[in-house]
Automatic annotation (TrEMBL):
Signal peptide start-end: none
Protein name: Transcription termination/antitermination protein NusG
Transmembrane intervals: none
UniProt keyword annotations, A-Z: Transcription, Transcription antitermination, Transcription regulation, Transcription termination
SUPFAM superfamilies: N-utilization substance G protein NusG, N-terminal domain, Translation proteins SH3-like domain
Organism, as annotated: Salibaculum griseiflavum
InterPro entries given in the database record: NGN-like_dom, NGN_dom_sf, NusG-like, Transcrpt_antiterm_NusG, Translation_prot_SH3-like_sf
Every NusG-like N-terminal domain range: 7-106
One Pfam family linked to the record: NusG
Taxonomic lineage of the native organism: Bacteria, Pseudomonadati, Pseudomonadota, Alphaproteobacteria, Rhodobacterales
GO terms (BP aspect): DNA-templated transcription elongation; DNA-templated transcription termination; regulation of DNA-templated transcription elongation; transcription antitermination
Assigned protein family: Belongs to the NusG family.
Gene3D superfamilies in alphabetical order: NusG, N-terminal domain
Domain of life: Bacteria
Length: 170
């Protein structure tokens, strides 16, 4: 059952630093429905490229509850939560369409899915490996879902083949 079916709304909670997983676990334990969209990020550590999952919106988590029941005070006092985002005294609900659209772009665990429809000429960013965060242009897509992209490297264009799961549209 989704939050909308139970008559509740989605709200945005600000997290304490590095407490995304803790807050998610604590809110779920209390019976709240949460949504923490994740994205993969590749960084270089100690000379090696490491891919880790990071929140898509660092410092925030979506929480569903019925504000009329005063449950927002319980969310505010949850370990790992700083406060609910509000405009005035009451927390501000996030539009249901916005949350639904983000959920459609994620898998069951909240991990952002690669774009389904790429076409030649699209601008994309690579998300994994040594070229992480490089911007490229889709040249062509092979039947095996391998995507050929053109990248600007060292003053010239280079053609590179990558998997579609390694790309994000810009």
């Amino acid at each position: 059952m989704t939050a909308h079916e139970r008559g509740t709304s989605w709200f945005l909670a600000q997290l304490k630093p590095n407490c995304a997983r803790i807050a998610d676990k604590q809110l779920t334990r209390q019976g709240f429905q949460t949504f923490l969209p994740l994205d993969e990020e590749t960084r270089q550590r100690n000379g090696k490229f490491v891919t880790v999952e990071r929140p898509l919106f660092p410092g925030y988590i979506f929480v569903a509850f019925d504000a009329d029941l005063g449950l927002w005070r319980q969310v505010n006092s949850t370990y790992g939560i700083t406060r609910l985002v509000s405009f005035g005294k009451e927390p501000a609900a996030v539009p249901l369409d916005l949350v639904s659209q983000i959920m459609l772009r994620c898998d069951a665990d909240g991990k952002l899915l690669p774009p389904e429809e790429l076409k030649p000429g699209d601008q994309v960013a690579l998300t994994k490996g040594p070229f992480a965060n490089f911007v490229a242009e889709v040249e062509k897509i092979a039947p095996d879902r391998r995507v050929w992209v053109l990248m600007e490297i060292m003053g010239g264009q280079k053609r590179v083949a990558v998997g579609a799961e390694q790309l994000r549209t810009t």
